[in-house]
């Protein structure tokens, strides 16, 4: 079991996945909140069953998967339903994340959580790491990656913690505005730092 947890976060388009994968290349186990969030509403899951019971069969596709568009529409028009959904799913996601941390066999674990500070999950980690880029680059990269409009990306950015707030709460920051080699060097330096911090005989 890994006793030391690093919470990795950053705004949309900042490069969290790229950074996480560089840590994985060093043999570090990743616990990804987005992947777990999809698992808890997968076909035949308890989460999906409860969503169907609450909102009706239109929440399921003909194949029995979650109809994400219908659910988005529902919680957009009914804020109280968003609260119900969060109350259902957040404990499930949290317990799965902690179970994966417990099962991890690397010296420390990287917990990748887009809304680490917003959802109070920074309380579960020993150290927080923010991947940072400028808002202009954030817009540009996300539009190119997801093929969506500037307005859509701006709405997502506005729904997340603002850049200064994230940076003020971060223990460590990775600047992802340069070349991949600069990114690799920053990850390696932090990897060595975390190995020291995770060492039980470290003072």
UniProtKB/TrEMBL annotation:
| Binding of ATP, residues | 13-18
Highest taxon of source: Bacteria
Ordered alphabetically, the record's keywords are: ATP-binding, Coenzyme A biosynthesis, Cytoplasm, Kinase, Nucleotide-binding, Transferase
InterPro entries the UniProt entry points to: Depp_CoAkinase, P-loop_NTPase
Q: Which reaction does it catalyse?
A: 3'-dephospho-CoA + ATP = ADP + CoA + H(+)
MF terms from GO for this chain are: ATP binding; dephospho-CoA kinase activity
Cell compartments where the protein resides: Cytoplasm
Q: One GO cellular component from the entry?
A: cytoplasm
One GO biological-process annotation of the entry reads: coenzyme A biosynthetic process
Q: What is its EC number?
A: 2.7.1.24
Q: In which pathway does it act?
A: Cofactor biosynthesis; coenzyme A biosynthesis; CoA from (R)-pantothenate: step 5/5
Question: So what does this one do?
Answer: Catalyzes the phosphorylation of the 3'-hydroxyl group of dephosphocoenzyme A to form coenzyme A.
Q: Give the family, as the similarity comment puts it.
A: Belongs to the CoaE family.
Q: What is this protein called?
A: Dephospho-CoA kinase
Q: Which gene encodes it?
A: coaE
